[in-house]
Specification:
The complex is a heterodimer of chains A (282) and B (251). By secondary structure, chain A is an all-alpha fold. Chain A has 12 helices and 2 strands; from the N terminus they run ααββαααααααααα. In chain A, a hairpin with a 6-residue loop joins β1 and β2 (58-59). Chain B has a domain at 3-92 and 168-246: Rossmann fold. In chain B, the strands form 2 sheets. In chain B, strands 6-7-8-3-9-10 form a 6-stranded mixed beta sheet, with helices on both faces. In chain B, strands 2-1-4-5 form a 4-stranded antiparallel beta sheet, covered by helices on one side. Classes of the chains: A mainly alpha (282), B alpha/beta (251). The complex binds adenosine-5'-diphosphate (ADP) and magnesium ion.
């Protein structure tokens, strides 16, 4: 095999992935944007009634938009502090052997299919929440807890790498000035690792926003604006997942339009997070 | 001569590595003592024993004692954080923390709970002044420390130690990564500082020790071979191994 052939193959695959991204983007926008044009951006995004087959039809996605945002924020609140804490433990405190045992266990956690997570949430956590906290059990809270656990493996492994990459001279410099190990971690190591930790948060955010199957099983799929974490809700993705199979006409277009919103949202969050991380490293 | 730091029969092992063997060494107050010898002779381990940084190593085994002003630093009631501020160490490579120049200098004070702005400002100026860095950075105290040159970073690390008002300075090859001009500045600073501090210096090469120190201790293979005044050690060593080393026959 010549050098040139390998180059050509790699170039082709790179191009193919770019092209498929472009094609997907194009089709989603082509199928969805016209409906947003007809309905109007404000009524589409700000409308609270989603009744795509009724008479009159109504295409307001605010309930699912808020459902997605609350759920994502909730999952980050659960998953990021825990994940970073585990990463700190593994990188700074645990004996080498222990970290070596924990790492594959955590990778295993990342490999569990999301339907299994949904199943556990549905059968174990939801009844618990209903019993002890109230509400229907199938709720934003239940989903956020499970989703938080789902994003933890990514947060842990990326944060751990970032923490391990902090030069040892920072730790020694800090300890030599009389800092305790904990003060050193909090005051020097974590700030120095923050761009990597932030990257793990971005990834977790994308995963939480995009997760569909587990959420369908746990969130109750209620078309309402959730007023409390114990309320049922629905999300942009779970609504698409549930309705696309039978939707036609404007209904189908409206689901694609929902996809456009999701797409823009993820892009925007990524850009914001990137800007923040750049600002902090400067 | 008033002994200030006494190292008594100190042995340090890391697993199977014997880093220090039965070291006895007396270090007088307000002088510069240079600890010199070839690589891996235990100089850094000795410094790290005096501020108890060696204890970060899980495989450490130590015997013997170190006293400062007659009191053992290994007594159980000794607070390591307090000890490390009294016995402040500057490393061979500059180790500025990823924060501003100002924040670097007050880092130790902040940890001690000092919040008084005027006190902090005063200590920043004192530390930077004493480390001969004040004039270069006075107008950019809030720039990141990592934007300084290597020589400036090392003087910042010195300033950071001095801002804590330590009693003892441990300087482990502080000029190893510096250019000749920065090296000369730091050497001058050391001589100025010895009226206020007791300094132990691992020199960049033994000529540096001869230039700035009052006393010298030659280390080889984890043992303290010979101690004396600088002029005695470098002109009339008693031990043939010291003589071989200072006359350039090995190392
Ligand atoms: N934390 C440690 N763990 C294991 N061995 C160490 C450690 N620190 C130093 N040593 C060993 O102790 C010996 C003396 O090292 P050091 O004091 O750094 O020498 P130097 O005189 O060059 O400063 C070397 O053989 C080194 O490998
Ligand atoms: Mg050394």
């Amino acid at each position: 095999m010549s050098e040139r052939l390998i180059r050509a193959i790699l170039l082709t695959t790179a191009l193919l992935s770019l092209i498929s991204l472009a094609v997907i983007t194009f089709f989603i926008f082509q199928a969805g944007v016209p409906l947003i044009g007809q309905v109007g951006i404000a009524p589409f995004i700000g409308g609270t009634v989603w009744n795509p087959t009724g008479d009159p039809k109504s295409f307001g996605i605010l309930p699912m938009l808020l459902g997605s945002l609350y759920l994502t924020v909730g999952a980050l609140i659960v998953g990021v502090p825990l994940g970073v804490a585990v990463a700190v433990f593994m990188a700074e405190l645990a004996p080498r052997r222990m970290a070596q045992i924990m790492r594959p266990a955590i990778q295993l956690l990342a490999g569990i299919p999301s339907v299994i997570y949904g199943f556990v949430g549905l059968t174990l956590l939801a009844p618990f929440v209903r019993e002890y906290l109230g509400g229907p059990g199938l709720s934003v809270l239940t989903s956020a807890i499970v989703l938080g656990i789902m994003i933890m493996p990514n947060v842990i492994s990326i944060s751990e790498d970032a923490i391990r990459a902090v030069p040892n001279s920072y730790r020694e410099g800090s300890l030599a000035l009389g800092a305790t190990q904990w003060q050193t971690i909090w005051g020097v190591v974590l700030p120095a690792a923050r761009s990597g930790i932030l990257a793990s948060v971005i990834l977790g955010m994308g995963r939480a926003l995009g997760e569909t199957m587990a959420v369908i099983m746990m969130i109750g799929n209620a078309l309402q604006v959730p007023l409390s974490p114990l309320d049922s809700a629905t999300t942009l993705t779970s609504n698409i997942g549930l309705e696309l199979a039978y939707a036609s006409g404007q209904h189908r277009e409206a689901l694609f339009a929902t996809g456009v919103v999701l797409f823009v949202l993820i892009m925007a969050l990524n850009l914001i997070a990137r800007a923040v991380s750049q600002q902090q490293t400067n | 001569m008033s002994e200030y730091i006494s190292i008594k029969n100190l042995s340090v092992r890391f697993g199977s590595v014997e880093a220090l063997k039965n070291v006895d060494l007396e270090i007088p107050r307000n002088q510069i003592t240079t600890v010199f010898g070839p690589a891996n002779s235990g100089k850094t381990v000795l410094m790290r024993a005096i501020n108890r940084m060696i204890e970060l190593s899980p495989t450490l085994q130590r015997s013997g004692d170190i006293t400062i002003n007659g009191e053992s630093i290994f007594r159980p009631e000794v607070d390591v954080a307090v000890l490390r501020r009294r016995v402040s160490m500057v490393f061979a490579l500059p180790t500025p923390l990823p924060m501003s120049i100002y924040e670097n200098v007050i880092y130790g004070l902040r940890l001690m709970g000092e919040k008084n702005r005027e006190k902090l400002d005063a200590q920043v100026e004192y530390g930077l002044e004493a480390a001969a860095l004040w004039n270069e950075v006075r107008n950019r105290l809030h720039d990141p420390a990592l934007s300084l040159s290597g020589g400036q970073q090392q003087r910042l690390c010195l300033a950071r130690s001095l801002a804590l008002d330590p009693d003892i300075l441990l300087l482990d090859a502080p000029t190893a990564a510096l250019d000749p001009i920065s090296t000369a500045q730091i050497e001058e600073t050391m001589i100025e500082l010895k009226s206020r501090y007791t300094i132990i210096l691992v020199p960049h090469n033994f000529h540096q020790g001869a230039r700035v120190a009052d006393r010298a201790a030659f280390f080889l293979g984890g043992e303290c071979i010979e101690v004396g005044t600088v002029s005695q050690i470098f002109t009339a060593p008693r031990d043939s191994r010291t003589e071989d080393y200072v006359s350039g026959r090995f190392g």
